[in-house]
Write a structure and sequence with these properties.
The protein is of the alpha/beta class. The chain has two domains: 8-174 and 358-372, Rossmann fold (3-Layer(aba) Sandwich), CATH 3.40.50; 177-355, Rossmann fold. It is built from 15 helices and 13 strands. It has helices at 25-41, 57-63, 87-105, 118-128, 143-148, 176-179, 183-194, 213-221, 223-228, 264-270, 280-289, 304-315, 328-339, 342-355, 360-372, and strands spanning 16-20, 46-51, 67-70, 109-112, 132-136, 155-157, 167-169, 202-206, 232-236, 255-258, 273-276, 293-295, 318-320. It has a seven-stranded parallel beta sheet, with helices on both faces. Strands 10-9-8-11-12-13 form a six-stranded parallel beta sheet, sandwiched between helices. β12, α12 (304-315) and β13 form a beta-alpha-beta unit. The two termini are 19 Å apart.
């Protein structure tokens, strides 16, 4: 890799950081958390994001006050294969667009999170002599980050099981509201926010948007038994899923059905146990706040969601459940008895919290400052 290419004037102006993290919440959330940390350290920092026209970043980055530059998407195969031979032709335009964005931003450093925009950004940064940082959260690492990590000494990973050259364990950057959450202290006001009774055990059901259908179906199938068990539910069905309030019978403990919750810290504070998918961002949030959970890995890809949850389950902080086993009967037989087992839930919460890390944003920011020579 070429040298960082610092200029004397660079140290006298605000740091300019470009974030390459788009597509899914798993890439955008840590990018937003890092941006918040950088702004907390220096409100004058300049932050620009690279993304594609189809990703969630088109909504989330501008909402966070971050300038967004769009470049063509370059889908990558998960492994080295013949499909990789088709990538160079499609990556040329993206590299050119990423390089132009870096130039316009007067970028001091690039931070990539392994999304479709990351690899073109790494190539563009290397060509320009702009130092870059790689952040990887998946086991096994994505192809773009595996390539990018070969040409930079600044590589941050979520845990020790992720093997990349020059890797430093920094954890998953989380929003301040998650990092500083005291679930017990916020429970009453969080329950009030959702119309829940803080005295009743409360189950959280959330599967994102793309992975929510099976969890939604299982929760609705178990409705009569949930009501009979005097258990409340906060059910985040995911945007675009065809679950409506008409599916919820009236009477009995509260069953709150929402398509999306932006303030997830309140959802964690109001609930006692979660049924959820096992994306790394979800797992890291659950452990950071000490939330016991039943993790249901999406049955796609390289099985990375199972890898994500395994350490938590091994420590006693959660359950690991195959997707096809998640039914109304499973909720009745496994989840509902847990909701009344206060001592077991307390032990699971402590075990989950023992693996949680709340300082990852600062650790990743330190890599950024080192890369930028600040």
């Amino acid at each position: 890799m070429t040298g960082p290419g610092h200029h004397p004037a660079a140290a006298t102006r605000p740091l300019s950081v470009v974030l390459a993290g788009g597509g899914s919440a798993g890439h955008i959330s840590p990018a937003l958390a890092l941006a918040a940390r950088l702004r907390a350290d220096d409100p004058a920092v300049r932050i620009t994001a690279l993304g594609t026209a189809r990703g969630l970043e088109t909504d989330l980055m501008p909402k966070a006050g971050i300038a967004l530059e769009l470049i063509p998407s370059v889908p990558l195969p998960r492994r080295f294969s013949l499909d990789l031979a088709r990538v160079p032709g499609s990556v040329v335009g993206s590299v050119r667009a990423a390089g132009a964005a870096l130039r316009r931003a007067h970028a001091d450093v690039l931070v990539g999170f392994g999304s479709y925009v990351a690899l073109p950004a790494y190539v563009a940064a290397r060509r320009r002599g702009t130092p870059y940082v790689v952040h990887e959260s998946n086991t096994p690492p994505g192809l773009g980050n595996r390539i990018g990590a070969r040409f930079t000494p600044y590589v941050g990973v979520v845990d020790t099981r992720i093997t990349l050259p020059n890797a430093t364990v920094v954890g998953m950057p989380l929003r301040k509201e998650i990092r500083e959450l005291d679930r017990a202290a916020l429970r009453s006001s969080a329950c009030e926010r959702f119309g829940l009774d803080p005295a009743l055990p409360t189950l959280l059901v959330t599967g994102g948007s793309q992975g929510a259908r099976r969890l939604n179906d299982a929760a609705l199938a178990a409705l009569p038994a949930i009501a009979d068990a005097e258990v409340q539910v906060l059910h985040i069905a995911g945007r675009g899923n065809d679950v409506t309030a008409a599916d919820i019978p009236r009477g009995g403990p509260a069953y709150v059905l929402l398509p999306y919750v932006e303030e997830m810290e309140l959802a964690y504070a109001a609930t006692d146990f979660a049924v959820c998918r096992a994306g790394m961002n979800t797992v890291c949030e659950m452990t950071a706040v000490g939330m016991p959970a039943a993790y249901v890995p999406l049955p796609i890809g390289n099985g990375e969601q199972r890898y994500n949850a395994e350490p938590v389950v091994a420590a006693g902080g959660g359950l690991l459940v195959a997707d096809e086993l998640v039914t109304g009967e499973w909720i009745i037989d496994t989840v509902l008895p847990l909701m009344r087992a206060d001592e077991r839930l307390a032990r699971m919460s402590s075990a989950a919290a023992s693996l949680g890390r709340r300082d990852a944003d600062a650790a990743l920011a330190e890599l950024v400052y080192r890369a930028a020579g600040r």
